[in-house]
Amino acid sequence: MTAFAEGQSAAHRLFTTIKRKPEIDPDDKTGRQLEDIKGDVELRDVYFSYPARPEQLIFDGFSLHVSSGTTMAIVGESGSGKSTVISLVERFYDPQAGEVLIDGINIKSLQLDSVRGKIGLVSQEPLLFMTSIKDNITYGKEGATIEEIKRAAELSNAANFIDKLPNGYDTMVGQRGAQLSGGQKQRIAIARAIIKNPKILLLDEATSALDVESERIVQEALNRIMVDRTTLVVAHRLTTVRNADCISVVQQGKIVEQGQDYILITHLLLI
């Protein structure tokens, strides 16, 4: 009887999850399509708190503008709201008030697939699927050709180690990429993000979990793909933001300083 009761309880939770209609529906085809964009990104007077902690305000009138083709580094202590910027631009969440704009258009008025198709995301912990390297890269662009896959691998500094593998691009990565090192997994994730040639690139502490040598290789790849794209870099390490056009220091959900001078570098070093 205990087993039946536990199974019934588990089934109830499962069906509740299946029937739940998310506030941000990825299958919703209403809204404008983004055919082509310049890549201008702006958060305007944003107020936001996470659904699990509605009483804790993360952003209280937060504003940030990143001009097309430039790199903005966002630095600050843990919990200051750096990664929340990435989540809002990707529209994982909607703000309670204020606007998130791409080329001056509120992303709420755009089809979600259209928005995310123009954005590449590389996070701290790359998520790889239990399939081949080729398939993992192809998830970034449906119907990608082998030439496009190899070009993305070259840009991400992944081609050299892939070519040395016995099965090359058909090598299985294992569960969560267990057959690859941290640096190799991150380079596959970069290739997946870059294969669709996104106008906007989001880097959420993409090198923070790597050792020094892997970080150097991955950072070289990131520097290569950031050219001529609007890039938001969430970072703790100085090496990650050296080439940024502008540095924004975030504290308690607000930008306290912005620019590119030694004062900001000092803030970063003290984090």
Q: Please, what is the average pLDDT?
A: 83
Number of domains: 1
Class inferred from helices and paired strands: alpha/beta
Counting H and I runs of at least 4 residues, what is the number of helices?
10
Instruction: Label the overall shape.
Output: globular
Main-sheet strand order equals 6-7-8-3-9-10
Query: What is the fourth-level CATH superfamily?
Result: P-loop containing nucleotide triphosphate hydrolases
CATH architectural name: 3-Layer(aba) Sandwich
Run of helices and strands: HEEEHEEHEHHHHEHEHEEH
Number of strands: 10
Radius of gyration: 20 Å
Point out poorly predicted stretches: none
Strand content: 15-25%
The main sheet comes to: 6 strands, mixed
Instruction: Give the CATH topology.
Output: Rossmann fold
Please bin the fraction of helical residues: 25-40%
| Name of the CATH first level | Alpha Beta
Distance between the termini: 55 Å
Membrane topology: Multi-pass membrane protein
InterPro entries: AAA+_ATPase, ABC1_TM_sf, ABC_transporter-like_ATP-bd, ABC_transporter-like_CS, P-loop_NTPase, Type_1_exporter
Family: Belongs to the ABC transporter superfamily. ABCB family. Multidrug resistance exporter (TC 3.A.1.201) subfamily.
Protein name: ABC transporter domain-containing protein
